[in-house]
């Protein structure tokens, strides 16, 4: 339960889970990076515009060069807080987090071009939707690696 709590606080704000784990230096670094990337990329403004349905305006305000750093920071902070609180002890438990970071980054790269069923999701919704295949692919690869390594040791 403690690990899930840390994970959820890290989803709210990268660095909070580290603070709860008493990893203050890591927490401060994560929070500073969060604020730096958030401000430089105009992320909050794009979130606001996207929630209002003004997706094209969100595309225009985002600084993609800065926002490309966000998925790795975000998912690393979640994994780190979860792991330090005692979670993630099973083999390759980090893979869903890693693949989420990969897929969200790719979703961000395609967010100015891609429509799904004629819907333009933009730089907020498409990366968020990319978490789903990221988790699925991460879990599948994790399961395959577990099976492969078990057969290697028999």
UniProtKB/TrEMBL annotation:
Q: Establish whether keyword Transmembrane is in the entry.
A: yes
Q: Which UniProt keywords apply?
A: Membrane, Transmembrane, Transmembrane helix
Top-level lineage group: Bacteria
User: What are the TM regions of this chain, as residue ranges?
Assistant: 91-110, 116-141
Q: What name does the UniProt record give this protein? A: Uncharacterized protein
Q: Which organism is it from?
A: [Anoxybacillus] calidus
Lineage in the entry?
Answer: Bacteria, Bacillati, Bacillota, Bacilli, Bacillales
């Amino acid at each position: 339960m403690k690990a899930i709590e840390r994970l959820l606080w890290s989803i709210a704000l990268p660095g909070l889970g580290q603070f709860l784990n008493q990893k203050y230096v890591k927490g401060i670094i994560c929070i500073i990076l969060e604020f730096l990337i958030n401000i430089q990329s105009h992320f909050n403004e794009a979130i606001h515009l996207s929630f209002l349905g003004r997706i094209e305006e969100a595309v225009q305000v985002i600084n993609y060069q800065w926002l490309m750093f966000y998925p790795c920071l975000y998912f690393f902070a979640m994994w780190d807080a979860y792991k330090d609180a005692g979670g993630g002890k099973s083999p390759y438990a980090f893979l869903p987090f890693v693949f989420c970071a990969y897929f969200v980054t790719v979703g961000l790269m395609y967010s100015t071009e891609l429509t799904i069923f004629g819907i333009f999701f933009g730089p907020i919704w498409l990366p968020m939707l990319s978490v789903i295949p990221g988790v699925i692919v991460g879990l599948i690869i994790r399961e395959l690696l577990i099976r492969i390594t078990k057969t290697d040791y028999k």
